[in-house]
Each structure stands twice: as C-alpha cells, then as structure tokens.
Amino acid sequence: MIYGLRQLWPVAEGLVSLFIAYVVTAALSYLVARATWHLVERRAQDLAHRLTSAGSDRSTLQPAITATAAGMR
User: 55, CA 20 to 30 Å: which among 39, 47, 61, 64?
Assistant: First the structure.
C-alpha cells in the first residue's frame, strides 16, 4: 500500500510534502467554496426574482416560495 501511495504522490517526504498537501487541500477547498457560493447566490437570485415577480398578489406568493423550497431539496 505504501508503495502505491508513493507512486501516486512522488514528492519528497517531510515538510515539503506536508506543505504541498496543504496547498493542494487549500486550493481545492477554495474552489469548492466558490462553486458553492455561486450556487447559493443563483438560488437566492431566483427566489428574489420569483418573489418580486409575484407582486402584491398573495395567492401567487406562497406557490413561488413552496416551489423554490422544493427545488432546494
């Protein structure tokens, strides 16, 4: 198993390897956080658009909220 890991991660052992692993992990975390932020922002804009397009008619407001909540599941 160790041999297989060294083939996949052919970096020197020690602090350099730990630093590279940290940088890769931080970069992946950043990319996932940005992607998640964009998805949340898009859903929030969609909800805001539905709520503002519903206008003052209360009968269309509840279905818009229910439809958006169902889409988030």
Answer: 39
- 10 Å CB burial of residue 36 (0-12, 13-18, 19+) is exposed
Dig out the tokens for 63 from the structure. 């279905």
CB of 54 closer than 8 Å to CB of 61: yes
Sign of CA dihedral 59, 60, 61, 66: positive
Give the angle subtended at the CA of 36 by the CAs of 31 and 34, to the nearest 5°: 35
Could you tell me the pTM of the whole model?
A: 0.51
Q: Of 48, 46, 50, nearest to 63 (Cα)?
A: 50
Query: 57 φ, ψ to 5°?
Result: -75, 110
Structural tokens at position 43? 């859903």
